[in-house]
Amino acid sequence: MPFYNSISKYDWQYLVTGFFLISVFIFTDLIGVIDKEYFYFVPRLISDQPHRIFTSILTHADLNHLLSNLGGIIITRYFLMRLEIKSRFFYLKFILICSFLNFFILWVYEKILSYFNIYPNYAALGFSGIIYAFFGFLLLTSFHGKKYFLGKEIGFKSNYEVQKMSKTICLIGLMLSFLPGVSLLGHLSGFIAGCFLFLI
Fold first, then answer.
1. What processes does the entry annotate via GO biological process terms (predicted)?
2. Rounded to an integer, what distance in angstroms lies between the CA atom of residue 195 and that of residue 172?
3. Distance between CA atoms of 27 and 170, rounded to whole angstroms?
4. Looking at the 3D structure of the chain, how many domains does it have?
5. Euclidean distance between CA atoms 7 and 69, whole angstroms
């Protein structure tokens, strides 16, 4: 079946996502009217400031960080079009659910460490955890297809080309996650969350 990567009625989801990411960057980094330290994901502060679960994914360290994640949105949009998406709200619902699921995975990890009297102290930010969740979800979908997501039709079909590309991207992404300044834990927890969302 020929594929034309033209504008579709589902594109508003990606535009809204990109708009929020760019807007937050403008207010935090360019104009400086908001201190992004109030948005970071910091484990010891989550119980008192739960908003950080969501705001941390909207905040980026610098322009390169933002641009790399905007590129991730473009890639996931391409894959979703190839899988023949049939939902106007899937992308935004996935982001919202994955934000909390990703937090839960990190919480379990931290609880395991605390059992051994290890208490991680770090700050995380950026949309890449969500991008990796999409990669995990789309990788499995490219093999098996997925007709419904949380009871709503999304109409994804298996696709060998997406399968090949997503495997390559996931492998490269995993290797890049070991670079200094990159959150390996955030990427892995996102990927696991995406795979879990495929299974439910």
1. proteolysis
2. 18
3. 32
4. 1
5. 20
The encoded tokens of residue 90 equal: 């899937």
Q: Does some domain include residue 1? A: no
145: left (phi over 0), alpha (psi -120 to 50) or beta: left
Amino acid at 93: K
The predicted-structure confidence for 14-57, as pLDDT tens digits, reads as follows 999 999 999 999 999 999 888 888 888 887 787 788 888 888 99
Distance CA 7, CA 16 (A): 14
**112-166 pLDDT, tens digit each:** 877 777 766 677 889 999 999 999 999 999 999 999 998 888 889 899 999 999 9
Please spell the DSSP secondary structure of 9-78, one letter per residue. TTTHHHHHHHHHHHHHHIIIIIS--S-GGGTSB-GGGTTT-TTHHHHHHH--SSHHHHHHHHHHHHHHHH
Q: Is residue 7 part of a domain?
A: no
Provide the strand spans (E) within 48-193.
Answer: 146-149, 152-156
Q: Structural domain of residue 169, as residue ranges?
A: 12-199
The reply to whether 94 falls in a domain is yes
- For residues 135 and 75, what is the distance between their CA atoms, to the nearest angstrom? 9
